[in-house]
Inverse folding.
């Protein structure tokens, strides 16, 4: 972020490095039920991101002193594989992934009906296999599908998208280069039914006008992303329907 | 045989129940919303699950495709003893929470500390949920007709939300499978099913249950299961009367 470079991220025609217009999303694909032994799972491929989300539970929370007598605790664990980025990432939780795990847990908790499962714990494992900017939002979008796939009661999906400032222009869904050499990055996740925000972070600077522009771009993209989440689940039933073994 | 399930070829043309996703609005049309729905605003109801909408005479429910079992008072379930305390058995009931069976709720005269003479770790029982509290602690009882330790037989597990389909209206589905395969079947509300009988017949019964499981969201399932059982008649033993 903020690193100056000679790369021109937006060309004279207003197109970005990968040929997208400012309001275009990268190709997005979600597949639900990819893991046999998880209660729910999803694989998301969003641009160059490849992320698996696996949900286990609700199950009794351990250690016992962590149990909440009123509700289930949601424990998301965001982890980047050592080979997921250009330069090998030192494996294991670091400051960044601990923070992301925390904000994702909180975002998911706002959609899950945790009060139905006192003393329980819902584990969400988000494994980034290949990273290409916007992994937290992609991981969150996939986890929400995985939770619905697990049959855990939830009020709504959680759908997210990023926007940012690149070469002085506000654009949707940053790619790796735009994230690294752009001026700002704004990931937002909402409950798409009522557009309530459950996650918002910002890296870099945006003016008030730019911020408004970025949020409205994201809000415009949310229904499209949510539609992909929904079809990931409903196609699971069709796959079973087409029969055979 | 061309296909394991002859009926399955036609699944694509089968009518399915209305499918909803979390957050979708469900029109109640004067019915009382019951399970799997939550209230939004004044009189709007939304689905909490990815599942099918089921309307009965009075109620409307959303039944999830997958999900865990939550104990309810009076449910007859199948459980597995996983731990033995001085006066209680701890039973895994295929749910996020384990359940307890106190020695006084068993049909035997048990002395404290001597519980494993009656039920050991790994034993399966059919039991009834005696009570459950706000924090989902539950107690089981073995003191009712038909409740006992399960000896022999095979245990299979299905997703708890599909149990009503396996049982069918008034037990029609499970009775049909029982009669056709000449096996003894106990279906626990928690999704565990105990089947006993000749091995060949048990296999057919399991396949029939698999079929119900796969097609639980479709309409006209009883007829397809009947057709399936008829096609398997030759593979079973002892079906002449």
């Amino acid at each position: 972020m903020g690193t100056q470079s000679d790369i021109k991220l937006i060309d004279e025609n207003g197109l970005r490095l990968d040929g997208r217009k400012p309001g275009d999303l990268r190709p997005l694909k979600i597949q639900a039920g990819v893991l046999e032994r998880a209660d729910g799972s999803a694989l998301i491929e969003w641009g160059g991101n490849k992320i698996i989300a696996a949900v286990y539970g609700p199950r009794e929370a351990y250690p016992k002193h962590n149990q909440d007598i009123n509700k289930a605790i949601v424990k998301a664990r965001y982890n980047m594989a050592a080979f997921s980025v250009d330069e090998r990432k030192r494996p294991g939780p670091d400051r960044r992934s601990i923070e992301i795990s925390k904000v994702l847990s909180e975002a998911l908790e706002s959609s899950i009906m945790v009060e139905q499962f006192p003393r329980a714990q819902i584990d969400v494992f988000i494994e980034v296999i290949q990273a290409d900017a916007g992994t937290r939002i992609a991981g969150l979008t996939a986890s929400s599908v995985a939770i619905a796939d697990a049959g855990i009661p939830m009020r709504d999906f959680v759908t997210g998208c990023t926007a940012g400032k690149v070469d002085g222009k506000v654009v949707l869904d940053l790619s790796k280069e735009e994230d690294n050499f752009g001026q700002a990055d704004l990931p937002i996740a909402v409950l798409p039914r009522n557009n309530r925000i459950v996650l918002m972070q910002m890296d870099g600077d945006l003016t008030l006008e730019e911020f408004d522009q970025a949020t409205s771009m994201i809000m415009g993209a949310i229904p499209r992303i949510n539609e992909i989440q929904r079809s990931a689940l409903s196609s699971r039933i069709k796959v079973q329907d087409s029969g055979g073994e | 045989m061309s296909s394991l399930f002859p009926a399955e070829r036609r699944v694509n043309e089968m009518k399915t129940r209305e499918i909803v996703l979390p957050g979708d609005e469900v029109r109640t049309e004067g019915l009382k919303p019951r399970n799997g729905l939550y209230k939004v605003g004044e009189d709007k109801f939304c689905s909490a699950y990815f599942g099918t909408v089921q309307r009965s005479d009075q109620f409307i429910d959303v039944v999830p495709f997958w999900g865990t079992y939550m104990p309810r008072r009076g449910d007859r379930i199948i459980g597995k003893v996983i731990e033995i305390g001085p006066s209680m058995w701890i039973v895994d009931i295929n749910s996020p929470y384990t359940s307890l069976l106190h020695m006084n709720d068993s049909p035997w005269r048990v002395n404290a500390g001597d519980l494993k003479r009656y039920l050991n770790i790994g034993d399966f029982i059919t039991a009834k949920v005696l009570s459950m509290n706000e924090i989902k602690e539950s107690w089981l009882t073995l003191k009712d007709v038909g409740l006992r330790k399960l000896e022999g037989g095979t245990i299979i597990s299905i997703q708890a939300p599909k149990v009503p389909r396996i049982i069918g209206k008034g037990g029609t589905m499970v009775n049909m499978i029982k009669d056709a395969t000449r096996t003894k079947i106990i279906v626990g509300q928690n999704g565990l099913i105990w089947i006993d009988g000749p091995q060949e017949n048990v296999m057919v019964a399991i396949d029939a249950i698999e079929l119900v499981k796969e097609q639980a969201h479709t309409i006209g399932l009883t007829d397809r299961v009947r057709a399936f059982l008829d096609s398997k008649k030759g593979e079973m033993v002892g079906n002449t009367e």
